[in-house]
Design a protein that fits this description.
about 150 residues; 5 helices; about 85% helix; single chain
Length: about 150
């Protein structure tokens, strides 16, 4: 976590999470479960970083972001989590086709969500937070990653 820009760090995490999902072999549910669980853990870590560290840091600087863009991101996180959880249940039950349907619904939200974060929210974070504040965010991210 040596990057000093929020956008660089979180966009790279998006790419890594996308790659994990692309590697899930949905045609074989038994094999897909372990890979999807890896994706699930990484996505949950990412959402936790945003909601627990990044969003509060930015809201402290610019309160108007909380009822607007940040609220939208949190609502989309909830929708993404619902579909992801349903896909996990389907995979555990060996229903690969059902899991793919939930994954497609999740992706429909996730793609637009990531675009909004990458084009609007993360650059706003970089602009609002001072270098010292960004360093504090990265320090908290490192502490959370080690936990």
């Amino acid at each position: 976590m040596t990057n000093d820009l929020i956008s660089t760090f979180f966009e790279q995490d998006h790419r890594e999470i996308d790659a994990l999902l692309s590697a899930v072999p949905f045609e074989t549910p038994k094999d897909a479960l372990a890979k999807f669980q890896e994706f699930d853990c990484r996505l949950e870590r990412h959402i936790g970083w945003e909601e627990g560290i990044l969003f509060p840091a930015v809201s402290a600087k610019e309160a108007c972001l909380e009822p607007g863009p940040i609220r939208v991101m949190k609502l989309e996180h909830a929708e993404i989590r619902r579909e992801k959880a349903a896909a996990l249940v389907a995979l555990r039950e060996g229903r690969g086709a059902a899991s793919k349907g939930h994954v497609q619904a999740m992706l429909a939200v996730l793609k637009g969500h990531n675009m909004k974060e990458e084009q609007i929210l993360y650059p706003a974070c970089d602009n609002l937070l001072t270098p010292a504040e960004r360093a504090a965010v990265f320090q908290r991210l490192r502490a959370g990653a080690a936990a």
